[in-house]
């Protein structure tokens, strides 16, 4: 049988013929062992009846399983494109992409996480498509969603729950939106409307802001994205990546040095807001939130204070202040000069 890597290169989707062994055989062929095959086998065996009429496509970095067949083939191409973007910024990522037939099936696959209002969500080594939400996305939105979720897979977001939400979700959106060419005002339309009305946020978005049903869920994702966009523009993309890696390293260690970090001389730079290619807020909402800023217990587990100081030389309070000051310019909203 033709190896799936070759099939992936031509974006082919192979029907499973109603049998689980169809997938297992289709993904087996000559050549070196496929690193994704054990993960795909394990996932399919969890709910074999769900994939009885499924198709499979093997891309360069993903295995896509589900239906309909044309969507599976298209997602294989989109997922490989997204994985290349993630690899350029963060590092290599491989994942199994699951495309269930119904939202109810997506709920089963995602349990105990909720899929209501989402287009996709990430787990360990996998991305689960919520078919109803995903179908409503534009082509750009689909690309953004896949890259966003693959970032979560690459960074281990499903198993690193103590990082702040604005960093987890904002970084995923930062990578997801690269190269889309959309303006910040388009991406963050809801937040832009608030800023134009004079209602600027007062702090970084926290855990509660990212929960399903939150009144400002869209704005929370937009704010998180703009925080990470601001960091990349002012300090550089590599520093943004270093911040995330440092936060992973420091999480759970506590913020014992918060007092010292709040003092010191922090070298500020000029905000150079480089345009990193924006996306659209179509993406349904991926992944759940994190840090409630008022909750000291959450902050102590996040390790963000030492990570900020180590990589950027600033405190969270200073980051918040400078990011808030940057919002009108980032969103292309004129500000009225203050009277002398």
Poorly predicted runs are 1-12, 14-20, 254-301, 336-340
β-strand percent reads: 5-15%
Shape: globular
Helical fraction equals 40-55%
Mean pLDDT metric: 80
Structural class: alpha/beta
Number of helices: 16
Largest sheet: 6 strands, mixed
Strand order of the largest sheet: 1-2-3-4-6-5
Q: How many β strands by DSSP?
A: 6
Order of helices and strands: HEHHEEHEHEEHHHHHHHHHHH
Number of domains: 2
- Calculate Rg over CA atoms: 21 Å
Could you explain the architecture of this structure?
The chain is α/β, with parallel strands linked by helices and 340 residues long. It has 2 domains: 4-158, Zincin-like (2-Layer Sandwich); 160-330, no CATH class. Helix content is 49%, strand content 7%. It has helices at residues 4-9, 20-26, 37-46, 69-89, 103-110, 131-135, 139-155, 165-176, 184-187, 189-196, 217-235, 237-250, 258-261, 296-302, 304-311, 316-330; strands at residues 14-15, 55-58, 62-66, 95-99, 120-123, 126-129. The chain has a 6-stranded mixed beta sheet, sandwiched between helices. Strand 3, helix 4 and strand 4 form a beta-alpha-beta unit. Helix 4 (69-89) packs across helix 7, helix 8 (165-176) packs across helix 11 and helix 11 crosses helix 12 (237-250). Residues 1-12, 14-20, 254-301 and 336-340 have low confidence and may be disordered.
TL;DR of this structure?
The protein is an alpha/beta fold and 340 residues long. The protein contains 16 helices and six strands.
């Amino acid at each position: 049988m033709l190896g799936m890597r070759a099939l992936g290169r031509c974006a082919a989707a192979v029907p499973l013929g109603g049998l689980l062994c169809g997938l297992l055989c289709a993904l087996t062929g000559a050549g070196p062992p496929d690193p994704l095959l054990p993960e795909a086998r394990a996932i399919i065996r969890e709910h074999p009846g769900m994939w009885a009429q499924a198709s499979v496509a093997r891309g360069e970095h993903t295995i896509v399983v589900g239906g309909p067949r044309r969507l599976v083939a298209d997602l294989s191409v989109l997922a490989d494109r997204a994985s290349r973007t993630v690899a350029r910024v963060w590092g290599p990522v491989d994942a199994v992409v699951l495309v269930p037939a119904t939202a109810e099936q997506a709920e089963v696959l995602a349990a105990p996480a909720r899929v209501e209002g989402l287009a996709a969500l990430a787990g360990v080594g996998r991305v689960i498509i919520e078919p109803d939400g995903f179908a409503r996305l534009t082509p750009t939105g689909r690309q953004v969603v896949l890259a966003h979720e693959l970032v979560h897979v690459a960074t281990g977001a499903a198993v690193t729950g103590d990082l702040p939400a604005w960093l987890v979700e904002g970084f995923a959106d930062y990578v997801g939106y690269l190269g889309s060419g959309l303006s910040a005002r388009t991406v963050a339309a809801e937040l832009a409307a608030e800023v134009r009305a004079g209602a600027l946020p007062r702090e970084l978005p926290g855990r509660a802001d990212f929960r399903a049903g939150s009144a400002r869920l869209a704005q929370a994702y937009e704010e998180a994205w703009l925080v990470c966009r601001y960091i990349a523009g002012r300090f550089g993309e590599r520093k943004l990546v270093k911040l995330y890696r440092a936060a992973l390293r420091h999480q759970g260690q506590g913020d014992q040095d918060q007092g010292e970090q709040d003092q010191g001389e922090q070298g500020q730079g000029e905000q150079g807001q480089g345009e990193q290619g924006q996306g659209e807020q179509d993406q349904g909402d991926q992944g759940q939130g994190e840090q409630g800023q008022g909750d000291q217990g959450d902050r102590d587990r996040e390790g963000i204070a030492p990570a900020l100081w180590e990589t950027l030389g600033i405190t969270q309070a200073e980051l918040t202040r400078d990011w808030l000051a940057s919002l009108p310019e980032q969103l292309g909203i004129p500000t009225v000069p203050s009277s002398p």
